[in-house]
Amino acid sequence: MKKKILVIRFSSLGDVILTSAAVLNLKLNFPDSHIVFLTKERFRDLVTLFSGVDEVVTITEHSSLREFTRVLLKLDDYNFDIIVDLHGNLRSWLARKALTAVRRVVYPKRRRERFLAVKRRRLPRSGPHTIDLYNNCLRQLAGSVAAKRPVLTPGGDLGAALSGLDPAREACVVIAPGAAHPNKRWPLTNFLEVASTLKDTHGVRIIWAITAEDRDELDVGAAADSDSLRLVDWPVEKLASVIAAARLTIANDSGIAHLSSAVGTPVLAVFGPTHPALGFAPRGMFDRVAEVEEFCRPCSRHGRKACYREERYCFTRLSAETVAQAAGEMLHDAAKRSPAVFVDRDGTLIVEKHFLSEPDRVELEEGSIEALRVIRRLGYKLVIVSNQSGVARSLFDIAAVESVNRRLLEMLSARGIEVDGIYFCPHYESGSDRLYAIACNCRKPAAGMAEEAADQLGLELRRSYVIGDSIVDFGMGRVIGATPLLVRSGYGRQFEKRLFGGDDPEGNNVFDNLLGAVKYIEGRQRG
């Protein structure tokens, strides 16, 4: 019987986006669950882009207690197994108390630590990120945490949304100068100067994501900038597709910064009166924060409080030149990244042989050589990733894994195929070897191996693919925002039933073997 799980987060934009990791972790821990997300109506379309959400229920922006009660009465018919409160306010407390559920968990808000950070400037050296606090709910449920970064999949046709824009041919930079509160806004004139510098030095096209109130000021300051595009008050879910196609986003400490992280586009976030130590810094793998240290930072938790000094030194001492230089470095790094195909080893690339440890037993799956040749011909980096819990279970040692990997690489090299990287995780929390029986960030579906490869090989994960025969391979693809493909070789058939039941496999990215999955990639690239 499917578990029914309710997740509660009403607002605001950035906070809702940051819950995406916890929602995905819930789905990974309870793959046959039905997850309902309760939020405000203006975030409905955004939440539908989350990986793991099955249904969205909403309340109006300023719903009365009577209206809210009506929504709760309808929700009570679900008889939830678990309620996960990721908001922690009066209304979410009321929902927890009013609704039938077997278990209820609430994320820890760290009110005292944040109060001391603002009032007494006691900044922790490495405080937990808000995503970590949300994920604490998984630990309360005795679940594992694989996703530690926000992730959503933008929908819609970018070509139809922005006619005349071809991100494949021209590098685009999204600049979002808005913020929830005026005190958090770095001066628009500075953003204009940064845009001018990037156009002159890097030849990028600027896409302004602005509100109607900023339009007049922007039009005056950028009157001669005819090449730039202006997206005024665009819906967030539509803006997500635009940002996903850009090479960089520059924004204030705002929801747009988190949106950029969630779709995989590096963001340079400008922080002034707020501070990353409060747990709201963008958390994409290649994100950066532009800031200057001032004794009065942070002056408020969310940037609502007006500056008491004669000027906002946290912003006036952060020059456009400094931000433009940082943005230029990020553009240079982003231009060098390329997509990859991550291929599972046992059961996908080679024949599954339970806890394989002898090199002479390595046997390639039928069609795998041709598949790897196609990957190479398409221009993707080729990376092999595998969980090797036999080490933690004391069935074999690291040397045995490495000897099997060497044999595999020799067999591939003899057929003219070179691999860009091969990674494995020796850990298993319930293992018997104390050295490896630990919770780690590299065991699939966690992102550790993929992110290590991305760092070492210069990969762009969101344009990559993950191919494997297990639910953990499919899960890793979802965690890193890549496209996951399941094969029926190895253990694939049993996991296909667990993942999709009797649903149409053609819509679920399921293929008979590695070659079938790679042919699908080839077809997408041609189409």
- Radius of gyration (CA) equals 24 Å
CATH topology of the largest domain: Rossmann fold
How many discrete structural domains?
3
- State the fourth-level CATH superfamily of the largest domain: HAD superfamily/HAD-like
Instruction: Please report the number of helical segments.
Output: 20
What is the architecture of the largest domain at the second tier of CATH? Answer: 3-Layer(aba) Sandwich
**CATH class term of the largest domain:** Alpha Beta
Mean pLDDT: 92
Measured as a percent range, the helix fraction is: 25-40%
User: How is the largest sheet built, in terms of strand order?
Assistant: 8-7-6-9-10-11
Task: Please state the overall shape, judged from the principal axes of the Cα atoms.
Answer: globular
Largest sheet: 6 strands, parallel
Count of beta strands: 17
Describe what this molecule looks like in 3D.
Helix 9 packs across helix 14 and helix 15 (368-378) runs parallel beside helix 20. This protein has 20 helices and 17 strands. The strands form 3 sheets. Strands 8-7-6-9-10-11 form a 6-stranded parallel β-sheet, with helices on both faces. It has a 6-stranded parallel β-sheet with strand order 14-13-12-15-16-17. It has a 5-stranded parallel β-sheet with strand order 3-2-1-4-5, sandwiched between helices. The chain is globular, with a radius of gyration of 24 Å. It has helices at 13-18, 20-29, 44-47, 65-76, 90-98, 111-119, 130-140, 158-161, 188-202, 212-221, 236-245, 255-263, 313-316, 320-335, 368-378, 398-414, 448-457, 471-479, 492-500, 514-526, and strands at 4-8, 34-40, 55-59, 80-85, 101-106, 172-176, 205-210, 229-232, 248-252, 267-270, 288-290, 340-344, 381-387, 421-425, 465-468, 483-487, 510-511.
